[in-house]
Amino acid sequence: ELQMPNSIQTRLAGMGKGGHLFSTFVMGALSALIVGPCVAAPLAGGLLFISQTGNVFLGGLSLFALSLGMGLPLLIIGTSAGHLLPRVGAWMDAVKAVFGVLMLGVAIWLLARVLPGPVSLALWAALAVISAIYLGALDAVAVGASGWRRFWKGFGVVVLAYGLVMGIGALSGAGDPLQPLARFTAVSAQPENRTEAPHFTVVKTPEALQNALAQAKGKPILVDYWASWCVECVRMDKVTFADPRVKAALQGRELIRVDVTQDDAASRALLKRYDLVGPPAFIAVAADGKTAAQQEGYLGPEAFLQWLSRS
Question: What DSSP state is assigned to residue 203?
Fold first, then answer.
C-alpha cells in the first residue's frame, strides 16, 4: 500500500479540522487532483468532439455539463455530513486489494501494446498466480470454516489453475490471455481457418503514399492507416483481414498500408491528407483516383464486407 508520509497526513488532518476557508480550499484542490485523472478520458473525448463540430456554444455547454457532473457528487457527499459515506471496516482492505489487482491488470493491458505477446501473457500469468495465493489457494481450509472462506479458496484455486495455463501458453509463444493454448490448438485447426492478413504495400511518408497511389492508378485501391501501438489495428489484422471472405473481396484491389507508428511530421501529414484523427482508418479509392468511401475505427469481418461493398 502506497501512502503519503505521516507528517503530511498529520498536517492535512489538522487543516481539515480547522474549518477555515484556506484549509477548505486546499482540501478541494487536493480532491480535484484525485478526481482529475478519472475525468481525463471523458474530457479528451469531449474536446475531440468539440474540435470536430467547431460549434463554440455547444462546446462551452458540453464542458459546463461535464464540470457539473464532475463536481456535483463531491458537493452532495460533502454536504451530507458523512451520512452517505460507507462505514469504515475490514471490508475496505478487501476493496483496496481488488482495486490494486485491477490497476495492475490495466497496467499490463497498456504494456501489451508495446511488449511482445509472450511477455505480456507471462505478466498476466504472474498476476493471476499471485492473486490466487493471496486468496488462499495454497492454504488449508480449517475445520468449520465459513462458506465464504471456502468460496474464496475455490475461486483462488480456479485463478491459480488459469494462471498456470497462461504461463504454459507464454512459454509456447502464445500472447492472447483469452486463448493461452492457441499454439497447441492451432495444430489441429482446419487449413481454411489458418489464414494470414493479405500483403500490403507499406508507406511511411506523404511522398511514398503519392507514388504508390500513382502507380496503382487505374485499379481500385484500399488505403489502410495502421500503427504498431494501435490495438484495434492488430485486431484488424488477426480477425478481419485474416478472414477468408475479406481476403477474397480484396482480390483485384491494390492494398496500401500507411504506417503512422511514429508521431512525427510525416505521420501528421499523412493523417491530415484525409482529415483523420488516427488509426485504424480505411479509404477506398476508385479506379479514377477519387475517394469512394472512408471509414475510421475497428470493423469486424461482416461490417467491413458491407462497407467494402458500398464503396
Answer: E
Q: What is the DSSP letter of 193?
A: G
Q: How far is CA 98 from the centre of its chain?
A: 20
Residues 221-230: tens digit of each pLDDT = 999 999 988 8
Q: 176, 155 in Cβ contact below 8 A?
A: no
Band of the pLDDT at 129, cuts 50, 70, 90? very high
Return the pLDDT at 20.
66
Residue 144 is placed in which grid cell? Answer: 468449520
Distance between CA atoms of 161 and 19, rounded to whole angstroms? 53
Contact 176, 118 (CB under 8 A): no
Q: How many CB atoms sit inside 10 A of residue 8's CB?
A: 10
pLDDT exceeds cutoff 80 at 18: no
Query: Which amino acid makes up residue 24?
Result: T
Q: Is 81 left (phi over 0), alpha (psi -120 to 50) or beta?
A: left
What DSSP element (H or E) covers 136?
Answer: none
The model's pTM is: 0.57
Q: Are 222 and 283 in contact (CB under 8 A)?
A: yes
Instruction: Enumerate residues 6+ apart whose C-beta is below 8 A from 100.
Output: none
Cite the DSSP H helix spans in 112-237.
117-134, 147-172, 182-185, 206-215, 231-235
